[in-house]
Every structure is written in C-alpha cells, then in structure tokens.
Hints:
The complex is a heterotrimer.
Chain A: H1 14-17, H2 21-58, H3 63-67, H4 80-111, H5 114-128, H6 132-144, H7 151-176, H8 179-187, H9 192-220, H10 224-229, H11 248-255, H12 261-298
Helix pairs in contact in A: 2-12, 4-7, 4-9, 4-11, 5-7, 6-7, 7-9, 8-9, 9-12, 11-12
Chain B: H1 2-31, E1 34-39, H2 44-58, E2 61-65, H3 69-77, E3 83-86, H4 92-98, E4 101-112, E5 114-115, E6 125-126, H5 128-136, H6 145-150, E7 162-166, H7 171-183, H8 185-190, E8 203-205, H9 207-217, E9 221-222, E10 225-226, H10 227-232, E11 236-237, E12 239-241, E13 247-248, H11 252-258, E14 289-297, H12 303-314, H13 331-341
Parallel strand pairs in B: 1-2, 1-3, 6-12, 7-8, 7-9
Antiparallel strand pairs in B: 3-14, 4-10, 4-14, 5-11, 12-13
Helix pairs in contact in B: 5-7, 12-13
Chain C: H1 18-60, E1 70-71, E2 76-77, H2 80-111, H3 114-129, H4 132-159, H5 174-199, H6 202-210, H7 215-244, H8 247-252, H9 270-277, H10 284-321
Antiparallel strand pairs in C: 1-2
Helix pairs in contact in C: 1-10, 2-5, 2-7, 3-5, 4-5, 5-7, 6-7, 7-10, 9-10
Amino acid sequence: MSEITPAGADPFDITVRSNGLGRRRRVEKSLGFLAILSAVAAVGVLALVLGTVLFKGIDSLNLNLFTEPRPLFGQEGGIADALIGSVLIVGMSMAFAIPVAVLVAIYMSEYASVRVATFLRLVLDVLNGVPAIVVGIFVFGLLVVGHGQSAVYGAFALSILMLPMVARATQEVLDIVPRSQREGSLALGVTKWRTTWNIILPSAIGGILTGVVIAVARVAGETAPLLFTSAIAANAISLDVSHALPTLPVAIFVFSESPDPGEQAMGWAAALVLIAFVLVMNVLAKIFAGRKRRQLEGS
Amino acid sequence: MKKLLAAVIAIAALVSASVVSTGAVAAPARSQGTLVGAGATFPFPLISKWIPEVGKAYDVNITYSPVGSGAGIAAITARTVDFGASDAPLSASQLDACKGCVVIPWALSATSIPYNLPGVDFRVKLDGPTIAAIYLGEITNWSDAKLKALNKGKNLPDMKITPVFRSDGSGTTYNFTEYLSSVSPTWKDKVGFNTSVSFPTGVGARGSSGVAGVVKNTPGALTYVDVAYSITNKFQFAVVKNRAGKFATPGLRGIQAAVSKVPDKVTQLSQLKIVDPPKSAGNLAYPIVTFTYVIVPTNSAKAADLRKFIYWAVTQGQKFGPPLLFQPLPKPVQAFAYREIKKIQGGNS
Amino acid sequence: MTTVTHDPAAPGPRLESRGIRLGDVLFRGVAVAAAAGTTALLGLIAYKVIEQAWPSIEHFGLSFVWTEAWDPVKDNYGALTFVYGTVVTSVIALLLATPISIAIALFLTEIAPRRVAAPIATMVELLAAIPSVVLGLWGILVFGPWVARHLEPWLQDVLGFIPLFDGTFYQAGMLPAALVLTIMIVPITSAICRELFARTPRDLTDGALALGSTRWESIRGVMFAYAAPGIAAAVLLGLGRAFGEAIAVAQVIGGSDNIHTSLFAPADTLGSRIASQYQGATTPLQQGSLLYLGAILMVISLTTNVAAQFVVRRFEKQRRAA
C-alpha cells in the first residue's frame, strides 16, 4: 500500500511514493536534530567549564599570585612555588622523554623489520593506555620507596606518560618521509646515521613538535603520578629538584577540597593558569601540524 | 627547524642539569636553619603562627605541609621530612617502623561537631551514644525522637542527616572514633578506632578542609573537625554531654577541665588519654579533646634546631594558642615534653 | 662485461674509514636500546605493581577481588566496593557517551558545513585537553552541588520507583562521578568515530541512497555496519580511559567503603581509593591492599586497552583488504 501522494507533488518522484516515507523523514529530521543537540551540548559544557574557570579565576589574578608561595593558615599567598615546581618537572620530563621517544621512532621507521615495528607500535599503544595512577604506583615502588619523594622522580613518571605520544607522532611522520630522500642520500655515500639525523629528521620536525606539544599539554595537567612522587613538599619557592616540589595540578587538587574561600579562589586562579597553558599548547600544535603539512606537500 | 627541536631538548637538559647541581650545592646550605615538616591539619593554624616567630627568634626557616596525620607519619618514617605531626599517637608497629622516633605532645585542642542546619539558631545538644548512633546509621533524621529528647522544647527540622567523615588517614578521626568507642560498645565492637576506619554510612572527604567543605554545601550534614576550623568557617557546632551530665562547649575552659585529670607525673604517652573524661573532671569538661604530637627522630642532623623549635613551641609558643582555641599544655605534660626533647640528638649538636 | 651494482651500505674501497661505520653501529645500538628499553618498561611496570601488592595478594588471595570490606582497624580489606564503583561509573559513562559521541561525529561529518565543522571539532577536542584535576575542581564546587540540588531531585521525580534513583541527594556520589567521566570520554570516542565516518567509502553510502533510503537509513545501514568494529574500538578505548581516571573521580565520588543501591549515594573506585588513601596508610597490609587495588586496575585497563588495539588492527586489515 502506498501513501496518497500529496496534492501538487510530482507523481514521478520515486521517494514520495515509497512506503511510510513521512515517518522515515520525521525520524531523519529528529535524529538530525539530536545530532545538532549533542554537538551543541558538548560545546556548551566546554564553554561552561572554561567560562567558570575564567570568571572565578580572573578575580584572583594579581601579581601576588605569581610571586608568593602557598600561604600559612589565615594569610594571603599565591601559587609561585607550584608554578616553578611545575615548570621544572615538566622541563625535566621533556628532557627524559623526547630523546628516547625519537630514538624509538627512528628504530621503528629505519631499522626494524615490519614485524618488530608492528610489535613496537602495539607496545607504545598499550603503554599509552596505562592509567596515570598506575604509572605513579610504578615509579613509587621503583624509586620513591626507601629514597623519598623528589621532583626528579616526578619528572620520570611524567616522561613515561609522554613517551608513547611523542614516539608515535614521530614514527608516523618519519614513515611519511619519501623513500627517495633516504635512498638518494645513501646513494651519495652518506652514512645511515647521518642520513637519519641530518636529512630525515629535519623533514619530520613539524610532526615531532606537534607530538611534543600535545604531550606536554597533557602531562602538565597530570596529578596522579605526582601524588606519589612529589606531593609532600615544603610550601616555599624552591629549585631543589632532589626533593619534592609543589606543582600546579597537586595544588589545584588540594585547593579544590578547601572550604576556605581564599584557597578556593587560588584554586580557580591556578586552574586558569593551567588551562591557559594547555590552550596555548594546543594552538601551537595546530600551527606545527599546519607547518608539517605544508612541508610534506612541498617536498 | 631541526635546530629548534635540538634547542628545545638542549634547554630542557640544561635546565635539569643546572637545577640538579644547584640543588646539590644548595643542599648543605639548606640544612642550616631550615626545618621541613608535614602532618596533621589539626595544628596547622597554630604552627602557622609559630613559624614567623621562630624565624625571628632563632633564624630557623620552617615550612609545614598539612597533608594529614597519616601522611605525616609516613613521611617522617621515610625521613623525607625533618619532623612529622600527628593527632594520633603512634601504634606499636608504627613506632617500630619509625626506628627511634620520639612522640612529643605540643598542642592541645578539641574536636568540634559542626553541622549545617539552615534556620536553626540555637546550639544543638548531642551526647556520645547519639553521635555514635548517627554515624552507625541508626539515626537518620534530625527530627528523630532521641534528638528531640536531648533538645527539649526546641524545633529540629525534618531533614536527613548526612554524616561526613575523613576519607584520608586522620588524627581527628582517631580522636573522634576513640571517643565513640568509649561511649558506645556497639561502635567499639563494630568499628573501633584508628586514623582510618570503615565508617558504616555517610560521605567521605579529604582533609579538615574537605569535610568542612562538604558540610558547608550540604544542608543536614554534620561532621567532626578541629574547633579552630569550625570557628574560622563560622560553623555552628554542637554542645556535647559529658559524664557529669552537663552539655559542654569545645572552648578553652572545656578543654582545661577535660585535662584536669592528667596525672602529676607523666612518664608515658598512654597516660595522656583524655577522651570521655570522668565525672570528676567537672561540669565544664568537653568530652572530645586531644593532644597533638610532633614526631622527631632521636638521631637527626638537625637535632639542635629541632630541640630549639620544639622547646619554644611547648613554652612560649603556647601563648599563641588561646585565640585559636588551643589550650596551653598542663605543667605535667610540659615536663614530659622537656624530658622527651632531650632525647633528640645527633648531627651538629 | 661486468655490471657494477652499487650497494650503498657496503663499505667502499678505502673511501669509508672505520670511524663512520662505528657511527652507524653506535646509532643503531642506541636506537635498539631505546626500543628494547621501552618494551622492557611495560613489563617492568606490570612487575613492580604486582610486587608491591604482593603482601596483600599473599594474605588475602584471589577472594580479595569479590570481598566487600575496608577496615583499617581490623586490618581486613577487600576490593568489591571499588570494582563495583569502577564498573558502574564507567559503564554509565559509556552508555551516555557513546550515543552522544556518535551523534557529534555524525553532525561533524554529515550535517555541518565545512566552515562550521572545523571550529566545532576543535572545540570538542579541547574538551579532552582540560586537565582532569580542573574538571574535578569544577565538579566539586559547581557541578556536584548542581547535580544534588537540581538533577537528582528531578531524576527521583521521574524515575524514583527504580531503587537506583531512590535515596538522599548528595553532592558527591556515583552519579556526579559518572557524569564527569562522560564529559571526559566523549571527546575521545567522538574523535575516533568522526575519523571513521569521514573515511567511509562514499560509494557505499551513495549506493544506498540511490536505492531510495533516507540519509539516516544509509548511515545506519551502511556506515555503521562498515564502521562497527571501529566504533567498538572507540568504545573500548573510552572505557579504558574511564577505568583509569582517578583524580577527577576522587574529587566527586565521596569515598564510601560499602556498596549502596542508589546512584545518588557516595561510592568509590579503584583509582580514587588509591589516590585518597595511599598517603596515609596506617598498616603495611593497608598499603599492600591499596596497591593490590592498583594491580587489579592495571589488569582491567590493560585487558581493555589490548582488546581495543586488537579490534583496531583487525579493522585496519579488513579495510585494507576490502
């Protein structure tokens, strides 16, 4: 049984004459509406969270925030100690992770057989999925037990989180570099390692930097590994990385549980600083990704 | 561009190297006149007052992280800090693990029972068995008959009670549960007392700050927290019935009365049990009172500074206590503290 | 006539000195070491976590996993409350996040014009970039109270006959935690789905349209069928992420030792219990038990993750063969 064609409709229009089309069209419309709604909801939640952080954090943005360490009970203070600690720890984790990650990627791309490379890709992907708190427990058991917490151990834990991201990003971009570049260089008598170092890597820089920036953005906000490695720290500005240092995410974690409006305000301000950093990193990542695309298209 | 990557790694490496070496160089300088401590949130208000004063008096720079009694005990056991602080005395196994630590009482205050009851302008009266029943889940509403009986003639709202507890290791929990174990055999049997117990019901939160925060935001909630935090956050807190049959306030006189039964000569920590004081302590005695302790290794490189700091704290430091509702230590306890301080040796003494 | 084939890797006569070959060997050696080290790292992580949990594993055995207990006074521990909490929060998050993610992915690939899709896609990605501690801060101070004051009463009005939605409203509990997890995994799952949908061969969907199906029917019938393994992988990856999240959950879940029926009641997960209590563990057995929870979490998340990887690889193979 076919639907009665509405007055004025084209009788040769095959879609109008098919079965139950009105209902199907309505289903389609409502699902389309739901899809739009979901996207709006996602953007809405983002705006809500970022907006709240912005509005609540901006009130506390003053110079003191960046020059004073965590205050004593009933006093004013800032997050300078946590900021410096975070910068040091993230900086060290970059120094630990980037060379190893790039080397692993080079091995996978230049030296390993297909089977080994596939296996290593699996290893990296699995490593990427290890929860941050499990990494914290690992570093705790490996280094902290018997020696105490320190910023260096914290950096080591963060570098484990960074490693798979940077390695995979590097490996993917190395694979895209055309074979012709390698073969040409080797044909000219350049050794393999110089070929890789001076010719292949530079073309891959855009991709590597994208991976690094994304990894740094993620790792700067990680709290769990630091709870195990650098949490019981003196609330004072310190450069001594052989001891635990205060960090931004741990500070936010502690402030978030405080009923003291002053500490809560500092929590929002710290969150604002952290999110601003993460956003800047994400923008940088997009810029580098664009650069990488143009470089590869150019070659 | 490759140069940029190389530069990034080089800078990161340079930062690490220079910072590590600075740390190595700075470390010996740090040990002169710096004390790092961690532990209970309970004494944090008082220690915050002590730090600038000790800095002025002895040129010792002290930092303190209020991470909780449990974390403080763990930190001093691992010797990652110079002193730990806890509201709970160390258990036998913890003392063992600490390998030669002294536990010295250095402050005295009370645990208040704040609540969030909008529209209630009178001070709610509670007693030990009722509080135990609330935390056991036996009393679930503020309009319960038992609560009515304690608060004769007053109107308590028909509101669910949310008991809030510390989910981290806490000396305040130790104090509170020790009290409940003393007044409720069911509690003692079912739950017991420790820095961390298995609460049968309620919501957990981290730190004194955490529980105070939950109470602030949850109508009908009630918790146990150091009286200093209650005052600072302008909470309403309950008056609790003591053995003399009177309802006592966690103020200075309540605390003073509660410790009036401490023996004249104190030789061991076990003599300092002051929860649920007997009837002879008087009408004002508040039942949930606790000492708070500093934990120090007997063999420490910073022994001299530690002795100066702790001696100052148990003598001149005590006068900073009353505005924060810390009652000055009774003389027998001070004498005990002096004897324990002498045991701190080692390093540049 | 002899043909000279030039082998670039072979040492030329007197042209390459020992030094340069050494460079090659060294470089390769270092690269191999890095790769081997990374593989060893994975094994070492598993080993160390289990080693630290061993005192508790030895004491309680496997029954720890299904025992509901957490009593530092009696030194008796069990993981059931936390396994339950982990599973329930993650499953709820998944049930909510999957349709939303698919809807967002469809929106971005099928409905939105190019100029609108790109910024919106970026914004959804940014949701993933928010550090979990910040989401937790927002959760404790803004979202949790809102859930307790508005969402939970509404849910009780509508669905109160189900025991899940019965009970007191708390601002910290299973429900706020599950919702925060949903916010965290939507960007991950939707990004994967979006890529899947974008890569579906056009001729498949065009064929369905030519046969008279509506857009939605072609999507449902063709695209989903094609992308199903990919969506499964996305779901598994999102699940793995939800299992592992400790910090934001610790901030909004309330820290209960026991299992409650109501979703409004406080609960606890494996990760968040470790994060809350490890610093102040009173006895060695409590510390070992917390790390036993960590071992269980590691096993659960590794299994989910490896399963996701295998589904992805099978899907890639299928796609290339097609």
